[in-house]
Amino acid sequence: MAIDAIEAPSPPSLSPSHFSSVCSQQRHFYLAVDRLQFKLETFMDLLGVAGRRPCLPMVVCCSSRDELDAVSSAVATVPYISLAPLYTDLAEADRAAILESFKQATIRWNPEVGAQSADDSEPVKEEQKSHMIVATDACIPLLASGESPISARVLINYELPAKKEIYTRRMATCLAADGIVINMVVGGEVVTLKSIEESSNLVIAEMPINISEIL
């Protein structure tokens, strides 16, 4: 697979105390996928529930441009999600507009509002759509350059990072203090997940069948 053109910067090191304070209210889950060929289908099933929460701000992190394209192409057909892929070759003004729009979505998010109707024949008002940014690690906000965290309610690791430092950077830049991480795990990635869990002092639980229980 083609890796996104610009290499992601090295994540800043965090002291154990700072890392613990960042993660104290965040919840971490994993969603096991039997086979790689079922991964995108499973992801879309997940969005069929989570994506119907009005104004829900979500970030999906991929490790490659190929996966970013595949995810974006699939989500683009979903009528109740407002999608914004972040590419390395976006103009600075376009990137800033996407990040600002998503910031406004995080302000409108209200966890007390229930899910939308499952009837896709009913049009969804733009202001009621959930909002999603899809990005590779090269494209998520650069805190060192002055960009602000985007504070999503839900961070989906479509591709599990191989290193704890990348996992930490995704949380620090993309997730609200009380946000939820959902890790999609295929086959042997369970070993990587366990390593991240142990080295980061996290508890990564199996995602409940009813995702509405955690949103």
Detailed description of the structure:
By secondary structure, the protein is an alpha/beta fold. The chain is built from six helices and seven strands, in the order αβαβαβαββαβαβ. The chain is globular and about 40 Å long. Residues 1-22 have low confidence and may be disordered.
Number of helices: 6
Please state the overall shape, judged from the principal axes of the Cα atoms.
globular
Parts with pLDDT < 50 across at least 5 consecutive residues: 1-22
Helix content: 25-40%
List the secondary-structure elements in sequence, H or E: HEHEHEHEEHEHE
Mean pLDDT: 85
Radius of gyration: 16 Å
- Major beta sheet summary: 7 strands, parallel
Strand order of the largest sheet: 3-4-2-5-6-1-7
What features would you highlight for this structure?
215 residues; alpha/beta; disordered N terminus
Q: How is this structure best summarized?
A:
With 215 residues, the protein is α/β, with parallel strands linked by helices.
Which SSEs are present, and which pair or pack?
Blueprint: H1 16-23, E1 27-33, H2 39-50, E2 57-62, H3 65-75, E3 81-86, H4 92-108, E4 130-136, E5 152-157, H5 164-174, E6 175-186, H6 189-199, E7 204-206
Parallel strand pairs: 1-6, 1-7, 2-4, 2-5, 3-4, 5-6
